[in-house]
Amino acid sequence: MEAYADIHLQDVQFYDPDTSIAKLVPHKKQGVLCVQATELKCGGLVVACTFDHRVADAYSANMFFVSWAEIAQAKPISITPSFRRSLLNPRKPAGCYDPSLDEMYIPISMLPPPPTVAELGVHDDHLISRIYYVTAQDIDRLQSQANSNGYKKRSKIESFSAFLWKMVAKSSNDDAKRCKMGIVVDGRRRLSMDGEGKTTCSMDTYFGNVLSIPFGDESVSELKTRPLNWVAGVVHNYLKDAVTKEHFLGLIDWVEDHRPEPALAKIYCSRRNMDGPTFVVSSGQRFPVGMVDFGWGSPIFGSYHFPWQGEAGYVMPMPSSRGNGDWIVYMHMPKGQLEFLEAEAADVFRPLTRGYLKLSMKDLE
Q1: What highest taxon heads this organism's lineage (predicted)?
Q2: What is the CATH code of the structural domain delimited by 61-112+123-357?
C-alpha cells in the first residue's frame, strides 16, 4: 500500500510510537506479509512491514529486508534463503525430549481459562509502547557490574536483561509475588553443530522459525535485594541448557509429539495481575538497519514493533543506526513499569529523540 502523511520526518515522535509511527504500520488481513510505504511532507519515506510470525522469525525477516534492498539496486542477492524443512525433521523415535519442555510450552487446549472481570480488577496499567536508546558506555557498565566479584563473563544481553529484571521487580509493590523473564534464543547455530562444536550443516540461511523461549522465575523480593551479578548468574544458568543442540532437537520432537495442535510458550500465558510481572526479551542485535538501502542511502532509523494483545511485556534491543555501539530498545510493557523505569533508571533508558537521531532540516537536505 502507498500512503501520505502530512508531517516532516523531524517532527515524528519516535519515543512514543503508539501515537506516531505505529499508525503507519499496516494491518495484515490475509497472506503472510503486508507492506505500507508512507511518503512524508519533507519527501522522506517510512517503509513498514507486517509479518505473520508463524512463517518467519526476526532472523528470517532480516534476510528478506537485505535481499529486498539488494534487488531494488539491481545487485546480486548475497544470501539465498534455504527452505529445507528436512533440517528440522524430528528424531526417530520421537517423544524422547526432556520433561523440562513441558514447563516451557503448552498446547492450546491446555491453556487456563481467561481471567474474570473480578480477577482482572479495575486499573489503567495497560501495556504501551516506548522506544529508548542505551549508550554503549552504559551497556559496558552494566556488563562490568554483572561480572564483578569474580563471576564468569556474562554477555551484554545477559547483563542488560538482568538489570531490566531487577528494575521490573522493583516496580512491583507485592514482594510475595513472582517475576518471570524469558529470553528468546535462536537455534540455527546450535543445530548446525555436532557434539564437539564443529559445524555439520549450515542453517545460517534457513528461512522460518527456529526459536525457543527459556525463562526464569524468581520472587520479587529476591530480585529486589540481590546484586546485579547474582541476578545475571540466574539468567546465565537458565539459558545455558537452552543454548544447546539437544534442547532444540528436543523441542522439534516436542512439537511433533503434539501435532497437529498448536502450542504456545508458557511465559506468554502469564496473567500479571495474578501471577506477577512477566516479560520477554528478544535480541534484535542482528537487525541489519545499515544494510537496508533501497538506493537512496541507509535508513536514519529502524525498529521492530510488537504490540501484541497478551499480558506479558516484550522488549527488543537493536543496534543503533549510528553504528557506534549504542542500542535502540523497543519496549511494550505496562504503563506503570515504564514510568518506574524512566524515574529510577533515567541514566540508562533515554527517550529516543530527533536530537539523538540528528534530525534537523539541515541534516535532511
Answers
A1: Eukaryota
A2: 3.30.559.10
